[in-house]
Amino acid sequence: MRPFSLVALVVVGALTALLPATAARSQDATPFRIGIAPHTSARVIIEQYQPVRRAVEAAVGQPVEIITAPDFTAFAKRALEQDYDIAVTTGHQAQLLKNDAGYRPLLTYTADFRAVVVTAAGSGRDTAESLRGATVLGLNPSSLVTLWGQHWLKDKAVPDVQIRYVSAADSVAQLVLSGEAAAGFMSLANRHKLPPEVQAKLTTIAESPAMAGRVYLLNPRKAALFDKIHDALLAFGVTTEGKAYFDTNALGGYREISDAELATMEPLADEVRRVLKAKP
């Protein structure tokens, strides 16, 4: 029995020594979650961000998944509840997440972010006044393009406009062209990504000034990874794959974003807070 006992002790000791390593590997296998604000369909978002996913996966040494939410309000709520390790969203929600949930801005894109108001070409809807009493489409009460568009209508004193919300920019275009709405709000980037034949049938009647566009923010729980992820994204940006990603999506590249730049979005961040309070 003595030799068997010795062997058993050796085996038990070896297994015990392996437990921390096994636990570490199990922890490393937990997906790192990058949440992308739903500026278009989930399918397009997941496909579009695969190069970014691979770059972050190499940096953090664990599986990375790209996820989104049904709409901008749900995205903001989930981000505030710490659902995302990295959140990628427009400047007004970035300001919200920074101030209210401790997310730290990583980078943004160099390309300007602008919102536009589009109508069907030849429809006669080519001024703000021509939208009086009409239906106008937005993406969600918490989306930057919708909030800007609603302010534009208010500034132009256009009365009796009914705002209707849909899920994606291509839906906005389809409904405007089918005559179900007089106009719609979308980002300039999403307008440029519509099929050429669809773009040709739309008229832009207003365009916003440049605003803080999509910002990458790191969850405070992952603060130790900030430098590693920040540097990995910058390195990705100068690779062949990174340049192709920026060119395909008209994003220009990455740049730093300051707290002062985000602070200009505070009035619109506050509107998101009001939407979240009103939502059951």
Give a written overview of the molecule.
This protein folds into 3 domains: 1-25; 31-112 and 212-278, Periplasmic binding protein-like II (D-Maltodextrin-Binding Protein, domain 2), CATH 3.40.190.10; 115-207, 3-Layer(aba) Sandwich (D-Maltodextrin-Binding Protein, domain 2), CATH 3.40.190. The protein has a 6-stranded mixed beta sheet, sandwiched between helices. Helix 5 (91-101) crosses helix 13 (266-278). The protein starts with a helix and ends with a helix. 49% of the residues lie in helices and 18% in strands. It has helices at 2-28, 42-48, 50-60, 72-80, 91-101, 144-155, 169-177, 188-193, 196-199, 226-237, 240-249, 259-263, 266-278; strands spanning 32-36, 64-67, 86-89, 104-109, 115-120, 135-138, 162-165, 183-187, 202-207, 215-218, 254-255. The chain is an alpha/beta fold.
What topology emerges from the helices and strands here?
Elements lengths: L1 H27 L3 E5 L5 H7 L1 H11 L3 E4 L4 H9 L5 E4 L1 H11 L2 E6 L5 E6 L14 E4 L5 H12 L6 E4 L3 H9 L5 E5 H6 L2 H4 L2 E6 L7 E4 L7 H12 L2 H10 L4 E2 L3 H5 L2 H13 L2
Parallel strand pairs: 1-2, 1-3, 6-7, 6-8
Antiparallel strand pairs: 3-10, 4-10, 4-11, 5-8, 5-9
Helix pairs in contact: 3-10, 5-13
